[in-house]
Structure formats: C-alpha cells, structure tokens
Amino acid sequence: AGLATGPVAARRVAFGGGGRRRCFAGLRCAGMWSRYLRILEACPVRTQMGTSAVLWCIGDIGAQCAERRLAVHPRHSHRTDVSEAKDAPSKLDWRRVGVQTGYAAFLWAPAGHYWYEMLDRTARRLPSPSPRRIV
Description:
Elements: H1 7-14, H2 29-42, H3 44-72, H4 94-125, H5 131-134
Helix pairs in contact: 1-2, 2-3, 3-4
C-alpha cells in the first residue's frame, strides 16, 4: 500500500487523522476527521458543497436567532427605534435558510474550490525565493 500524498494527506498529518482520542460526548473525532478527509480526497467538490451547505445553514439559523434576540432586547443593540421590536419575526425564515444554503452549496463551494485550485497552480509556477531574499 502506497503512502497518500497531496494537500488532503498533508491536512490529515497536520490535524492528526487517526488515533483513538475522544472529544465531546465520547465520539472519536479523529476517526470521523480521517473519514471526512478520505471522502474529501475522493470527491472534493461534492464534499465541499455538502460541508458549505451544512455550515452556512447552521450559520444562517444562528444569525436569525441573534437578530431575533436583538429585536426583542433592543437595549443590547445599537438601534434607537424601539418600535422595531414589535416587527421582529417570531419564527425562522426557512425560505431564507434555503436560499442561503443553496447559494453556499451550488455557487460558493464550487467557485471557491476552482478558484483556490487556480491560485495554487499559479503559486507553484512562481519562483521560490531564496533565504537571502527573505532576510
């Protein structure tokens, strides 16, 4: 069996992919992380699309909860008009969550993947500076 190389393998080494350390709730985070890295290596764009969608969805739900909390307790916000607290939505805007999640999955993740691949290829073509130049 050959040793895996590449950016994903480098991340696996850097972030400790493997081992039996446990994190919260008794889960084996290192094992989950190494599985995620294997999937990322096999299907990078699809994996990044799914990861972006999940994280963006969680972030938008958190943002809506924070917006609601600020609208209910206006003294913690920088607003001067207290009447806006009455207009605060009491439920999550699931349409907004869906639009944000779709944006993250179908536009942000693939565009970011190919953008950073292009930057990586361009940077590898540049001459590496000698130690004398850096100092």
